[in-house]
């Protein structure tokens, strides 16, 4: 006798429900998306005991008549698509026709709905997938769904739920996602009869972020500059350089208004930040990607958390370019805020005195030295021309002769005079612990890490020179061959020109086999095969516009870290001023190559709070 049996309709429904209804947060997500598709302008969510006891979602959408309400509980019944061709351009959040029947099959379910013009609505009660009651209802126009005793008839799934507090947090996160994705809709959230938040409909995303996360976070965000591509529209906010988290919890990504998880997008976001982000840290993003629904496939995951792009390379390039332009666009405002005075103030024809008022202190031996050996250190083992590539890079910290000092009162008068002349520009006050430069600007107090600032200046100068003059390479004594998997071989063949620009002499040497005869001179390569695997892994997430110096940037960053001005290296006024000027001319002056901030602003308002002048 055969071993295969048809499952009953009830068991089949419960098995299928597991794909859509993982936990109470999944129920809330599906119900809110249905409300949005129904044109709701206000959505109220109420839960008890982490959503296990009760989930109630009320909206003021278009509602349904009795026939549509009954059909909505049939599996694969939907108003959002008609043919298989409609799957190529899904413009709604729901389209499978699985959410409501799946939820009803694993809970005690109640649906009430009424159209705006109807005299009476419809109430439907379903227990464990079995229809119990259908009758007239008197609720307000819109739709109300109650889900009680989730998984009461499926203990195998219920025992895998977390604590009530954890499930409540997951639901709250889901409501946050939907509220951020749709700021034009009002949301309220009640947990165990306690109102956690009420969000009015807003005209802009910034107001919604302010309502949910506070003004302090909003002030540290920058608005995305957008893209010039008519096919891809990017909007939202990202964190300033230096604002990051240890997890991706605040890295929110939306595609056509749908909150999704995409390794392609998260990789592109990190690539866009590049040296503006510390290792192991993740940026804060409220990232919105809008493109033709036909260019994105949302029919990938049962819960619709993942998407597939028709042109992933184009999407990645657009994201990287947009983030880079946004971070660089803030450079003008940064420069205006911290712009150095045009000239050094003088008193009766005298040169400005050392602000630390130490005339007896001689110029430091190391920090004021021309670091002309930097290029040699970076390009160790290269030819003479390659080794000279980094020469004269560090003229930023020139050694200055000892300056005559006057009395403290005269120095103070110089500073006050310079402050009046500079107006909106900063005035150097002094140096704290021989590391942090203290400055005053129109907004308050500014602290500069002289080591981080010098690192950024040296890093960008050396990278620029090497990009202009080419990456120094070193021939291997014996060319070596290595094999790679088919997919990696295809990637190498498509990117041979990029690899050669990066100083890697590589060519095909048979099926899935390549020969390498030269490598960048600043890298110590003992195993070419392992080296190329690392290169492939590092560059796969980067776009085709990747800098030819990307491979050597980590080595450059380490080298400039060794040669930059250190803590306890005292600098004089003119040297500090020149360092700040050079920093402001960098592409990314906000942080060092390792992602640490170079400058910190402490506003007048913050200082007044610290001293109790303001509450």
Concise description?
By secondary structure, this protein is an alpha+beta fold.
Report mean pLDDT, rounded to a whole number.
79
CATH superfamily of the largest domain: Histidine kinase-like ATPase, C-terminal domain
- Please outline the major beta sheet: 8 strands, mixed
Domain tally: 4
| CATH C-level class of the largest domain | Alpha Beta
* CA radius of gyration: 31 Å
- What are the low-pLDDT stretches, counting only 5+ consecutive residues below 50? 340-408, 416-424
Number of helices, counting only DSSP H or I runs of 4 residues or more: 20
Into which percentage range does the β-strand content fall?
15-25%
- Order of strands in the sheet with most strands: 5-4-3-6-2-1-7-8
Q: Which CATH-level-2 architecture of the largest domain? A: 2-Layer Sandwich
Structural class: alpha+beta
Q: What is the CATH third-level topology name of the largest domain?
A: Heat Shock Protein 90
Report the count of strand segments: 24
Helix % is: 25-40%
What gross morphology would you assign?
globular
Give the CA-CA distance, first to last residue.
82 Å
Sequence-ordered SSE layout with sheet pairings:
Blueprint: H1 9-20, H2 24-37, E1 42-48, E2 54-59, H3 66-71, H4 99-105, E3 108-114, E4 121-127, E5 130-137, E6 142-148, H5 155-158, H6 164-181, E7 186-191, E8 194-199, H7 205-213, H8 215-219, E9 221-223, E10 232-239, E11 244-245, E12 251-255, E13 258-259, H9 263-273, E14 282-283, E15 285-291, E16 296-297, E17 308-309, H10 312-338, H11 374-378, H12 384-387, H13 408-422, E18 427-432, E19 436-441, E20 444-449, H14 450-469, E21 473-483, H15 486-494, H16 496-501, E22 505-508, E23 513-520, H17 528-540, H18 550-563, H19 573-584, E24 599-603, H20 604-610
Parallel strand pairs: 1-7, 12-15
Antiparallel strand pairs: 1-2, 2-6, 3-4, 3-6, 4-5, 7-8, 9-10, 10-15, 11-14, 12-13, 16-17, 18-19, 19-20, 20-24, 21-23, 22-23
Helix pairs in contact: 1-4, 2-6, 6-7, 9-10, 14-18, 14-19
